[in-house]
Request: fold
Amino acid sequence: MLLLPKFDYEEPKSLPEALAVLSELKGNAKVIAGGTDLIVNMKKGTLKPACLVSLKKVEGLRQIVREGGGLTIGSHVTVAEIAESATVAWVAPVLARSASGLGSPLIRNRATIGGNIVTARPAADLPPALMVLGAEAMLKGNGKGRSVPLDSFFTGPGSSVIETGEVLTSISIPSAPPFTGAHYVKLGHRAALEIAIVAVASRLTLYKPDGVIVDARIVLSAVAPTAIHAVSAEKALTGQRPSEELFAKAASLAVTDCSPITDIRGGAGYRRDMVNALVRRTLTKAYHDASGEKEGGA
Amino acid sequence: MKKLITLTVNERVYEVAVAPGRTLTQLLRDDLNLLGTKEGCGVGDCGACTVILDGKPVNSCLVLAVQADGSTIKTIEGVAIGDSLHPVQETFVEMGAIQCGFCTPGMILSATSLLEKTPHPTEQEVRQALSGNLCRCTGYQKIVEAVQEASRRMKK
Amino acid sequence: MKSYKVINTRLPRVDAREKATGDARYAADLSMPNMLYGAMLQSPLAHAKILNIDVMAAKKLPGVKDVVTWKEAGLVKYGVSPARYDEQIFCSDKVRYVGDEVAAVTAIDLETAMEAVSLIKVDYEELPALLDIESAMAEGAIAIHEDFPGNVSAEVHQEFGNFEEALKECEIIRTDTFTNKRQDGGFLEPQACLARYDLNGNLTLWSSTQSVHYVQRSIAMVLGIPVGKVRVIKPYVGGGFGPKAAVNAMEIAACLMSRRTGKPVKMVFSREQVFLHGRARHQFTHELTTGVKKDGTIFALRNVCHLDGGAYSSFGIATIYYAGSLLGAPYKLPNMKYDGYRIYTNKPTCGAQRGHGGVAARAGWEQQLDIIAAELGMDPVEFRLKNMMRTGDVTCNDFNMSSLGMKECLEGVRDGSNWVAKKGKLPKGKGIGVACGFFVSGAGYPIYRSETFHSTATIRLTEDGGAVNLYTASAEIGQGSDTILGQIAAEALGVSLDDVRVHSGDTDFGIDLGAYSSRQTLMSGHAVKMAAEDTKRQVLEALSEQLNVSVADMDISAGVIVFKKDKPDFSRLRTLYIKEHRGWEDLPTGADLTFKEAARVAFITRGVIIGNGAYKPGELGGKYKGAAVGTSPAYGCSAQIVEVTVDMETGKVTIDAMTDAHDCGFAINRTNVEGQMQGSLSMGLGEALFEEVRFDGKGRVANASLGEYRIPTALDMPNVRTIIIESDEPNGPFGAKEVGEGAIMPTIPAILNAVHDAVGVRINELPITSERLYAAMKEKQKK
Reply:
């Protein structure tokens, strides 16, 4: 039996109460949602919060709401709910796809979108899709509420801009322009229960079905301290006419944007090659979807 | 400081005082003497600790007992229907889906949960639903076949 | 073939219901009043002298009942083979791997025990850690064990025929080097035990083990208790696969602390401790040189093997022999030279795991044979068929293939997979591969030199004739032995499986060497069959006296007495039975005299009917050194064809289909046989594609979790098409022999050969991760 260390547990009944508790505990407390990362690390001894705060009783954190063509997802919505939601499948299929590949069905029933963001793991499953979707995280606490684009949210492995006393309450995803397509591929060893060796999300918006690319977003994960945009690849695509050669060029540029390390799951060199392969693959599929689409939906 | 929690397990209500650091697996096994739920790894990698929590199969080793306050839980001991085996249990027994049996409780719970949501799953859907439950003995084949046969029997 | 009533069927397992309802009790489920919890202190260093152990703070912690080190445990050395007793319960002079046991604590609860462990202060003086065989074999390397300078834990040299001479006759000669990686057993249930030393000085240990017998003997020896006062009981076991076949330090420590405290002591491994304990598959590096004549006759093989053994010997002394001997079949091979070296390193100890010693050798050799077949322009299936041994052939190393359905297996998978239509005709990126293998049906000799029977069995009929109690010390670890032994007893006695109650896994029930080397179906099965026949004889003899019919003219079948000549008048016996069962509703009425009535009569006239069986193999094998290892009364064999898809851009291998044919002699339970085949294939697939225990620079296991040590999930395994071949083994009960380990042999090479078929690349190092295959494909493209 793997034991947890001793800690206190609070279950505030409202958001203001929760924020007060977290402020008071000054960084010795962590929010526990699904616990699929937190409990594991507490059992291993790598995380030792003195207090866990559960937002179980706080209302308004568990809905998926369509808002003006886009989506607002409560931070405590589980990954399984996102993977199975018809709304998400319609508005942001690339997010549903990413969600369905996280861990296992058992993990997905507990893991939350908020947890996957706040734990800020370099290989986390949801950030790439969220970032190509232009998602923003709503943070409340310390007397303010602020909306932080996911692109600026992560600061390093395990760390983000979230401050002590702040809680991630929801994630908003804007509607996608017409002629937009996106795709996500996660490369792992087995077909389930994997942390990505490399994962890529790509999104393309075309001027018209057979037109130039007006917007290109490529996000890589597990190849840098955080999920990152392949900036030079994106630049090379914008304004250009899609083609196999263009995608190949973007893919090799993407390799220069990342800084993979060699770790227990894969070597740096292999990861670079896989960035190349997966960027090409996701761009091709994203383009295919974008050119076949009449309405927005990525 | 222990917290008093109330939860329903296999249709029976329990009131238990638990320390915050007690996992749901420990509560079930050590406090409620429901030993069918196993611990294979303690960190959510193997699925041996699977229980149904508020209608969803989860790794109980990653759930704090205090988080289950007010919840409804089904363990393997709650799967049989009265004194009869559930069709999934029957097909598991008949078709050789059980070898050492350690993954079996979790596997059966994931399977029954799938069939409630998807009464006629494809083979791929079965494998997907069971992908969080590791088995070292069977190679999964007879497990998948047993789940499919159970779904056929439940049709009638 | 004869038709049977109970065997060769698909009867559900006798313990399946208990497992399906959560009622089965495994060692960690057990508890007793006043039970204490134990925890272990294990070395954080790979190699270090122990200067001092200070247990004062630990002892003082409230709730702690005992703290033990080598001072309390003593220094009795133990291990698996008496030739290599190199382990102590606790290290005294030095620690030899990260995880080596130094002390244990028992306390009122687990939290306290673990806190106490953290309070034990050990002063170490670090020594150079030898983390691979190259460093361990290097000139001047420190000796991990004083008695083994140069760190060679064992060395074997064997030659059958004359390799060098034979090579001269070979037109094709190839040398390839192949390496697998250290594995883990990956069983779902971590080791656990509960020890109780009672007030009468009797020790009972419940433990998750594959052999109650070996554990009993080891504990008796180490703790200085007479064997008769040590009872080992195996509750339900959640898989073993080899690592649980010998005693572990936790078991002995629990017994020691129970003796010292007078209280029951429970100890359970965490998953990480399972990895630290290891005792699983070695890493083998095989340099194989094979000579083949231009007509495709395999003629000569030289196998030089280095095994990375870890810090102690465990089963390694046998492994090193199997790594050579298990290439002697299933092809005719007159000349075989083997040089094996098992090297100590400062890592967890390696031992036996499914396929013991033969898996890596088979993988490397079957791939090499495919390369040679290609050079000859021969189809790989045809090449193998051409060289196939037949029933009655004897290998160059004196293994007698008393039954060998290898040809049938190979033809079975060839046809079952549609090989001919697919081989050479699949699109690039898709491939099909074949391989063969074989394995022993029980080691010919026990681990310790002895004349002991390998298996005994006792049957006791209940006095009302209602049930047949079968007592066997054999170990049901999930493979289904309880069920098939029950079936054998039922068949041999003439009753149904429902009438038999199997009691197993308890040293009080007799002797059984346990579940390893795929021995129980054949060996325990023989003992059970004997016991059942002895029981039947006694019942028939009693009837014979009462009915004046000779025993030869009677039999028992389907629960009734069969009279081969005229049926006598047995009404007197029935009247007696009914008289004694006044009030029962289900009294016998039919035209046949029932077994129940006959058993009742036997009791009334003779007393309790007890049938006994005992089995040991005859003299087996050759007279050369090491001949004992690999000898067996029978050999199971297997052929497999695997189809793969390779993602050309990432190197990821997906197994699309597997077709497996296994010759088990005779299937006592067809569902069980298929289950063993499918399970073996899943372990083989895992080892081929994912599994590898990895270490960091300090000798710590870097992936001691089921998240980073990857066994296949339900989404990774394809459907396995199973074909059962029954060659009717003369040395097996009802013709049965093994299936539990032989089926894994062809898996890895079939995958290797399929990958080559798909992308034209040969992989000589496992696992075939996407990264490794990608690099190999890239390398090939450059040429």
